[in-house]
Write a structure and sequence with these properties.
single chain; alpha+beta; four-stranded antiparallel sheet; 4 strands; PH domain-containing protein
């Protein structure tokens, strides 16, 4: 599995490239869903870097979750609210402390993990 190299997440955000990370899965009845965090410096609706958490149905193969090595999360825990950071360091820190992201697991369109995350969500 490939993720961004250390130091690359900050540089990617400086270059206005969104980052994402799968932080886990939840079960809602018989349906398995995934949760991910997005850090987007190019969101036109905010002045700053938008950090947001998302949840969607797992469309891809559950075996891909094992490859990503993500935990099963408590479905009773709500998604954290969106946050607008003033700079790259604050955005990544908020994603890690407030949303469960890990510094070594960020992906963008340039690495294999992005494709896997898109497949899990059913996005191309």
């Amino acid at each position: 599995m490939r993720f961004l190299e250390p130091g690359s997440p900050e540089r990617a955000l400086m270059w206005m490239t969104a980052l994402e990370q799968c932080v886990g899965s939840v079960r809602r009845g018989a349906v398995r869903r995934i949760r991910w965090v997005r850090v987007d410096p190019a969101d036109a609706d905010v002045s700053g870097i938008l950090v947001s958490a998302h949840e969607g149905d797992l469309v891809g193969d559950v075996r891909m979750l094992r490859r990503l090595d993500v935990p099963e999360l408590d479905p009773a825990v709500d998604l954290p609210p969106d946050f607008v950071a003033l700079d790259e360091a604050e955005a990544l820190l908020w994603a890690e402390r407030g949303m469960g992201a890990r510094r070594d697991r960020w992906v963008n369109r340039a690495v294999e993990g992005w494709t896997m995350l898109c497949e899990l969500r059913g996005h191309s």
